[in-house]
Design goal:
- The protein is an all-alpha fold.
- Helices cover 69% and strands 0% of the residues.
- The chain contains eleven helices and no strands.
Length: 191
């Protein structure tokens, strides 16, 4: 992506993050300092703009997540980081998370920047460790995890540690469960 295009998308991203998706094309155009004609020169229609900006946000999420995984010590920490990052995005980028929920786009798995692909690839990279069960179907588990993060964890005001433990339980071996017990989930998710 060119630097100019990224700057334009970043401006649109910031505006929509602050003001939401429910604005008219006129309001969005005015808010980012372009004419309605320029808007339609960039995007054929509003749905295309929404698709492009959601993909841009998912790419940002993926880059942030992948940068932070470099500091993780094991696969359990990576899965917890994934959950944490989605919950943090719900606070800091609420507009985009809500758009994912509205369109069910978070359940798509056909793109490399979708949540199912992100977590599945992260688990595959650490599957050689002793913390994950070898026999688990990663496609099904990734879908299970992402679905429950969006529909259970994001809809509750208070983060429930037992739900997080439940979400990891199908994936973890006994060693993985010991690694999970060594992590202070209360401090990680409720501080």
């Amino acid at each position: 992506m060119s630097v100019v295009k990224e700057k334009k998308l970043e401006k649109l991203y910031n505006y929509l993050n602050e003001n939401g998706f429910e604005l008219s094309v006129e309001a969005i155009s005015q808010g980012i300092g372009i004419s309605k004609k320029t808007f339609f020169n960039r995007y054929q229609h509003r749905k295309e703009m929404e698709r492009i900006i959601q993909n841009y946000w998912r790419d940002k999420f993926k880059r942030r997540f992948e940068e932070k995984t470099e500091h993780c010590n094991n696969g359990v920490e990576i899965v917890l980081l994934f959950i944490f990052e989605i919950l943090a995005s719900n606070k800091n980028e609420h507009t985009f998370v809500q758009q994912e929920l509205k369109t069910n786009a978070f359940l798509a798995s056909n793109q490399s920047n979708n949540f199912i692909s992100i977590i599945k690839n992260s688990i595959e990279n650490y599957n050689t460790s002793l913390c994950f069960k070898n026999e688990i179907n990663l496609d099904s588990y990734a879908y299970f995890l992402v679905y429950n993060i969006f529909y259970i964890l994001l809809t509750n005001k208070q983060i429930q540690i037992d739900v997080i433990e439940f979400l990891l339980s199908p994936l973890l071996t006994e060693d993985g469960k010991i690694m999970l017990d060594d992590i202070n989930l209360e401090m990680m998710f409720n501080s």
